[in-house]
């Protein structure tokens, strides 16, 4: 956290946006102006007399074609985006890590068969494949999470496989196998911990893409069915049809979606720079000794030793 704060200001901005997304999603029923009830949640309270009301003190972001408060729907939509980002990306990471580690460790015919299946899978454009799968299984949150997670996991298998290839030839892996460790123990105790920093980085960077895919499917009518508040669904349908009459129906969900994806990408880039050992400088992290008090302290130590730091 100290390095993130001092070295990656955009990463800090991304962290703030991600924390705001999580806070809004968790406390949506208390933050939304329209409180609602169990049978009539706040995102679906209809006020037909207030249809297409522009932003006002009563409705800060205006209302839609049914008089529903746009701000309340955006706040409840943050909960859906949070669930998709966390659970969908988690399934993605588990699938890709298990397949990638198994292919790299066992090799042989198992690796060949799985990689040819991956080759066939990645031949299809990602969004087209998701549209086809969602058309088959039907809309729904569980179906959406499984399709996003499994499909994205198959796409990411090769990168996890390449990470394990670079580690499995180390001497401590051979020593563990010589002592009788099972394949599962070797992968869990030696391979997985060594690739965990990169898995964390990839997880954080994939969250934004998962949210975008969910928004794209909802925009096409293949995500959660109405009246569930999805940012992509709010942009589509009536929002697009009434964009000239009530532009706020598309503007605010699109702005929030863009900010969230931007924040997640900035945080992911910062974590990659901080955690990936291949991107570290010769004397620690990126810029850790390059500026500020840390640089001055290093200069003093080198001066005492009779050397100068350039």
Name its key features.
single chain; 310 residues; mainly alpha; MetI-like fold; 14 helices; 68% helix
What layout of secondary structure does this protein have?
Layout: H1 2-7, H2 9-26, H3 28-31, H4 70-106, H5 108-122, H6 126-137, H7 141-155, H8 157-165, H9 171-178, H10 183-219, H11 231-235, H12 238-241, H13 248-275, H14 292-304
Helix pairs in contact: 2-4, 2-13, 4-5, 4-7, 4-8, 4-10, 6-7, 9-10, 10-13
Please characterize this protein's 3D structure.
It is built from 14 helices and no strands. It is mainly α and 310 residues long. It has one domain (2-279): MetI-like (MetI-like fold). Mean pLDDT is 84; it is low at 281-291.
Looking at CATH, the homologous superfamily is MetI-like
CATH architecture label name: Orthogonal Bundle
Percent helix, as a range, is 55-70%
> What does the largest sheet look like?
none
Q: What is the first-to-last residue Cα distance?
A: 27 Å
Compressed to H and E, one letter per element, the order equals HHHHHHHHHHHHHH
Shape: globular
Number of E strands? 0
Please tell me how large the radius of gyration is. Answer: 24 Å
Strand content: under 5%
> Which stretches of 5+ consecutive residues score pLDDT under 50?
281-291
* The first-level CATH class name: Mainly Alpha
Task: Output mean pLDDT.
Answer: 84
- In terms of quaternary structure, the protein is single chain
CATH topology category name: MetI-like fold
Q: Tally the helices.
A: 14
Compute the number of structural domains. 1
Question: Structural class, from secondary structure content?
Answer: mainly alpha
């Amino acid at each position: 956290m100290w390095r993130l704060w001092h070295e990656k200001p955009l990463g800090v901005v991304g962290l703030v946006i991600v924390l705001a997304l999580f806070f809004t999603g968790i406390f949506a029923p208390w933050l939304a102006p329209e409180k609602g009830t169990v049978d009539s949640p706040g995102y679906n309270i209809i006020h037909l007399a207030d249809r297409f009301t522009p932003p006002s003190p009563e409705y800060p972001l205006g209302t839609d074609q049914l008089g529903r408060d746009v701000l309340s729907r955006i706040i409840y939509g943050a909960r859906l985006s949070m669930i998709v980002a966390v659970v969908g990306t988690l399934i993605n990471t588990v699938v890709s890590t298990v397949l990638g580690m198994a292919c790299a460790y066992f090799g042989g015919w198992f690796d060949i068969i799985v990689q040819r299946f991956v080759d066939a899978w990645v031949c299809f454009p990602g969004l087209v494949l998701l549209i086809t799968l969602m058309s088959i299984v039907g809309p729904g949150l569980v179906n959406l999470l499984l399709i996003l997670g499994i499909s994205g996991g198959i796409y990411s298998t090769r990168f996890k496989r390449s990470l394990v290839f670079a580690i499995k030839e180390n001497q401590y892996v051979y020593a563990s196998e010589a002592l009788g460790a099972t394949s599962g123990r070797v992968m869990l105790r030696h391979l997985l911990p060594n690739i965990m920093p990169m898995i964390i980085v990839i997880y954080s960077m994939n969250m934004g893409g998962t949210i975008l895919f969910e928004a794209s499917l909802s925009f096409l009518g293949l995500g959660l069915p109405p009246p569930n508040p999805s940012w992509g669904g709010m942009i589509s349908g009536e929002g697009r049809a009434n964009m000239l009459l009530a532009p706020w129906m598309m503007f605010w969900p699109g702005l929030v979606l863009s900010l969230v994806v931007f924040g997640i990408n900035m945080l992911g880039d910062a974590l990659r720079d901080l955690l990936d050992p291949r991107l570290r400088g010769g004397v620690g992290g990126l810029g850790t000794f390059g500026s500020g008090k840390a640089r001055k302290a290093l200069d003093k130590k080198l001066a005492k030793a009779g050397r100068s730091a350039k």
